[in-house]
Amino acid sequence: MKRIGVLIVGAGPTGLTLACDLARRGVAFRIVEKAPQLFIGSRAKGLQPRTLEVFDDLGVIDAVKGGGAPFPPFRLYSGREIVWERSLEEMLRLPPAAPRRDAPHPRTWLIPQWRTDAILHDRLVALGGHVETSTALEGLVQEDGGVVATIVRDGVAETILADWVVGADGGRSFVRKAAGFTFEGETNTEEHTLIGDVRVKGLQGEACHILTKAGDVASRFSLWNLPQSEHYQLVVTMAAGDTPELTLGSVRALLAERSGRTDIELDDLRWISLYRINVRMVDRLRIGRVLLAGDAAHVHSSAGGQGLNTGVQDAYNLGWKLAAASQSPRGEALIDTYDEERLPVAAHVLGLTSKLHRAGFQPPPSWSASSIDQLDISYRSSSLAFDDRTCASRLAAGDRAPDAVLPGGGRVFDVLLRGPHFSVLAFGERPLASLGAVRVERIREPLEPYGVSEGFVVVRPDGHVGAISSSAVAIRDYLERVGALPV
Q1: Cβ distance 92 to 367 under 8 Å?
Q2: Average pLDDT in the 377-396 region?
Q3: pLDDT tens digits for 401-413?
Q4: Which of left, alpha, beta for 134 (phi over 0: left; psi -120 to 50: alpha)?
Q5: Which tens digits make up the pLDDT trace of 145-189?
Q6: Between the CA of residue 326 and those of 5, 177, 321, 414, what are the distances in Å?
Q7: Taking the domains of the chain in order of start, what are their residue ranges?
Q8: Residue-wise DSSP of 112-141
Q9: Which residues in 332-365 are b (16+ Cβ under 10 Å) and which e?
Q10: Fold classified for 191-276
Q11: In the list 13, 21, 129, 458, which could disulfide-bond 124, CB 3.0-4.6 Å?
Q12: Domain spanning 2-71+107-186+279-373: which CATH class is it, in words?
């Protein structure tokens, strides 16, 4: 029986992100996908600013930027007449998108999921990995020191022993069911949503075209422009009792019924799906040596564009911890912090997206951009957050490390944080002994987002602040505890 460090089940954005992170860290893994190819639909098309930072670190930001575009405006029609046109920020009652000193990618980015998946896959191949398609996990048994997994390809079964199994296999996760995770929540039984990709002629301008007969958004037919494509994403929400056929003819009939227009031509329906909104999550992310990430662990409304992004953040949080566990038995303790840090985030996202879904086109007046862009996700309550200051600044251990311009030129993200390592920002003149592979940047002038004039800030490999202290001894102790330095 072959042994492998990590078996990743599912090659969507979550699984591919984790695979890329493990590959660049030299962790032995396999990634299997039961489908014969990567996903072909545009489904999760919005990348939030924090996800763009992750993709920047993984080396795919240029491809992502080149394959997408800023979100176009929303345009409501009554028949052929345009009733209004609003930006994404206006729709969500957010301030206009503008450059930020602390964030290199401040805007939500529109890119079809199939293209995101392809970019991540290309990066994985460049890192020496590959996806085993048409390969299904059909058995999972936990034993002392590993997980016995049975995978099947072309009717041929193979049994492997994995140190860890990560289920990134979606809302109907086999891994979740086989390992015995609960998945509590509810299903929206009042409505379901038709979504697909179709070629469109007859619409002018790049927009989310909200087509209606008389301006009633409750009976809309939406067509989203997709960058660099003749295809649009169609989205139609309908009562649970309405069950259309998943055919081009049915989609054309729905368009005519809801918009009253005959000048818009639809053809080449390349992907279509009908789904109900489930709001569910597990009560833990780890059972033994089996872990869950992405939709396998939490599902919710697509409102607010959080799903893919939350899965990517799961993978990014988990990757460096699995690498530490593969290098030292002490690193296994870090795996427990995955559940500790990410489960509260999942619960928050479920509440956020449910609130947005109920609000529809009228989000709450008190809305905050940080609720959407995921830049304010913090692990302040984590056992990995160490801060011994008596007078705290705005930035605390557990927060995302902000970007900033360094006094000597360059930016924190570019000079210091990009890569799979721990980093230390050493502010002022306090001495700090060599920290081996940990990257250290001496900063003799205050950086406004950090609020530290004398002392040290440890940044974890996932870009979150691990520790803040004025003591070099405390910083070394912390780095030893998290496996960044040998004991």
Answers
A1: yes
A2: 90
A3: 999 988 888 889 9
A4: left
A5: 899 999 999 999 999 999 999 999 999 999 999 999 999 988 887
A6: 7, 26, 9, 28
A7: 2-71+107-186+279-373, 191-276, 386-481
A8: -HHHHHHHHHHHHHHTT--EE-SEEEEEEE
A9: bbbbebbbbbbbebbeebbebbbbbbeeeeebee
A10: Alpha-Beta Plaits (3.30.70)
A11: 129
A12: alpha beta
Residue with tokens 């038709």: 194
Neighbouring CB atoms inside 10 A of 245's CB total 11
Over 80: is that where the pLDDT of 131 sits? yes
Q: Which fold has domain 386-481?
A: Glutaredoxin (3.40.30)
Q: What's the pLDDT at 469?
A: 95
Token couple for 311: 């899965």
pLDDT in tens, 287-305: 999 999 999 999 977 655 5
Given a contact cutoff of 8 angstroms between Cβ atoms, the answer to whether 380 and 400 are in contact is no
What mean pLDDT comes out for the span 91-112? 83
Report the candidate in 383, 415, 385 with the shortest Cα–Cα distance to residue 397: 385
If one counts every other C-beta atom within 10 angstroms of the C-beta of residue 141, the result is: 12
CA distances from 104 to 53, 295, 304, 372, 448 (A): 8, 27, 21, 16, 16
Tell me what the mean pLDDT of segment 468-480 comes to: 95
Per-residue pLDDT of 402-446, as tens digits, reads: 999 888 888 899 888 899 999 999 999 898 888 988 999 999 888
- Sort strands 156-167 and 74-78 into parallel, antiparallel or unpaired: unpaired
Separation CA 436–CA 370 (nearest Å) = 36
Structure-token match 């409501």, residue found: 76
Question: How distant, in Å, are the alpha carbons of 47, 106, 277, 295 from that of 350?
Answer: 18, 23, 11, 11
Euclidean distance between CA atoms 477 and 96, whole angstroms: 43
Same CATH topology for 2-71+107-186+279-373 and 386-481: the answer is no
The 3-state DSSP class for residue 235 equals: strand
**Alpha helices (H) along 294-388:** 307-327, 332-359, 370-373
Residues in contact with 67: Cβ distance below 8 Å, sequence separation at least 6, in sequence order: 111, 115, 116, 119, 227, 228
Burial class from Cβ neighbours inside 10 Å (0-12, 13-18, 19+) for residue 220 reads buried
Question: Residue 475, SS3?
Answer: helix
Alpha carbon distance 280, 176 (integer Å): 13
Total residue count of the chain as it appears in this document? 487
185: left (phi over 0), alpha (psi -120 to 50) or beta: left
- Of the candidates 307, 254, 248, the residue with the CA atom closest to the CA atom of residue 277: 307
Site of tokens 């302040």: 380
| pLDDT classification of 279: cutoffs 50, 70, 90 | confident
**C-alpha span between 397 and 383 (Å, rounded):** 10
